[in-house]
Amino acid sequence: MRRAALQAALISAVVFVLYAALAARDVMFGDGPELTSAAILNTVAHPPGYPLWIMLGHLASLLPAGPLPYRVNLTACVSHSLTVGLVYASAYVLTKRQLPALIAAIVLGLGSPLFVVWSLQAEVFSLTDTFAAAIVLLSLMIIDQPRRWQLVIALAVIFGLGLSHQTTLLLLGPAALWALWCARRAIPCTAQAAAVAFLAAALLLVGFALPYVHTLIISQHIPWQLGRARSLSELLWVIERRDYGGAFSLVGVTAAQGGDVYRPNLGRCFPTKAGSTATSSPLYRRMQFCTAGDAVDQPPVYFQGVEHWRPDVTIVVYGTLNAVDYVRRLRQQINIPDQIVLMQDPALRRDVIAFENPHRPLYCVGETGIHAPGPRYTPQVLGIVSRILPRGTRIITPANLRSMVAAQSISGYGNVTSSYWRSNGFSLPIREYYAGGFFTTGYYAELLHDRGAALAGTAARSSIPTIPSSRSG
To answer: Residue 85's closest CA among 36, 137, 23, 44?
Structure first.
């Protein structure tokens, strides 16, 4: 078994080198920007908090190894390369042969596109896989050699740390219990065995609780954000994921460089850094930037919080406007009434923000509801963002339409292939966020009977792949 362990370590090292060479150099879709920001700034993430991952990601961000996002992305490379090595070891325990174990490792590490994709970007899945593979390996080792039943101590530590990261690992509990049942005859009825059982139970609890000490300590020094917990009751709320419905509510990218989409698209509307002017940006200084949807909420927060882009801009995350603490924090930057927490209609909420801050331009990006005409204001579509203007403003003109089409034809705009749509798991919502302007332009051009702009809009729309919605029906 020692030889197999060395072989597993060698396989993990080789796979890590390969993954590290291919890993994304920038932030990616989904929760990646939020998690990367939390790791670099050493704060908290959305429930259940993922404190262990954040601590590991923060340590990775301190490495002198390329751009900050790349350093955090390396955590996925490490986790999944370890997972491949653990799978090799598990297959060896089952077969006692090197070739089948090697085939199992290769099929997972190189033959699974989904596994490879999540090996190259910052996400919590990869660490979950590592814990799962370790739990399976330890369980198999106990079943294979019952006299090594004291491995239950290591199994308890891994289980405790794993549960602090992802509670769905409880689904592997039966595997661990079955291993102990198979080893029951090798476990002596002695005080020593009882002490081992007590130690294992204690370490499981400590392993689960210890990472959350980080959450409690860090939360005392940060303003409100999703996942913050300043008391034990708030911590319990985070751990149980009550914002998502409960502890067992499962929340439902490619290996290419994520910034190749974010920076030329959303980044084009948010490009100037700290200390520079906004003259090169289509967005005005001291503007309000309202985002709606997972795919667009976090990139601006990352760009502003970590890379210090546009410190003059106030980012309004629409999805958290129902949180009183978030509204209070936002009130330090803009005027915002308490009743906005109770409002449900996206356009109405947006109109209230625009009305209460008449001297600060408001732009929106994300889900279609945030772009819809409201009681007082109407959108002027500018590519992937809309500027919110008072009703009655004449914004739909042939010149405006042609400028929109020109903006959308800039090299890199909307350069999101069908493989991108499928691999990031968001499908049509991503298409809606990043290519909405294509459809709006052509629609208004047709209303105006502007044949030239309509043809340009149709050509732009044809470049967007048709993806069947996984949410239909």
So the answer is: 137
| Tens digits of residue pLDDT in 246-267 | 544 433 333 333 444 455 445 4
Of 184, 214, 244, at which residue does a domain stop? 244
Q: Please identify which residue in the block is written with the tokens 């929760």.
A: 31
Domain count, the chain: 2
Enclosing domain of residue 210: 2-244
DSSP per residue, 204-219? HHHHHHHHHHHHHHHH
Distances in whole angstroms, Cα of residue 14 to Cα of each of 17, 19, 20, 96, 447: 5, 9, 10, 22, 58
Q: Are residues 231 and 272 in the same domain?
A: no
Query: What global pTM score does this model have?
Result: 0.75
What are the tens digits of pLDDT across the range 188-234?
889 989 999 999 999 999 999 999 999 999 999 888 778 888 899 98
Residues 29, 135 within the same domain: yes
Rounded Cα distance between 135 and 142, Å, is: 11
β-bridge mates for residue 314, sequence order: 288
Residue 467 lies in a domain: no
Cα 193 to Cα 93, 223, 231: the distances in Å are: 25, 48, 37
